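Input (RNase H type-1 domain-containing protein):
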Amino acid sequence: MALSVDGVRRKVDEEKEEPTWKIYFDEAVNFVGSGVGAVLISPDGRHYPVAAKVDFSCTNNVAEYEACILGLQAAMDFKVKELEVFGDSMLTIFQTLGQWKTKDAKLVPYHEYLEELAKNFEKISFTYTPRAKNQFADALETLASMKRSGRSSDTSN
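Output:
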């Protein structure tokens, strides 16, 4: 029995995995305030940056969770199904992976919300990346922390 080329092509197309998106997130807490940023990168290499100023006093750890949450929400807006998350916050990454316990009571709601957001993806991974490799998000969160107005800022194209 001969197989048609179209039949083979269709089967190959059905077996292709969903393209994986990437997100890099970071925070900045300084004398001006707190800012969070994330860069969503499409499978074809397009960059979609998002940044926001945090309008309340918070620790670096809370701001890191805020940045990761901002990134996941942006990915959900793009209807991303497979996502690789990168951040330079060992605490946020390792707590999300379940390798570290979330002991700080202020972080528990953030951790739980992040876990809920993660359920919206068919496949998601979290990877710790050293600060030097997180330059996209680092630049965004610095700008967001310096912004004087208190409203959220979306810097996407």
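Residues 113 and 119 are 10 Å apart (CA to CA).
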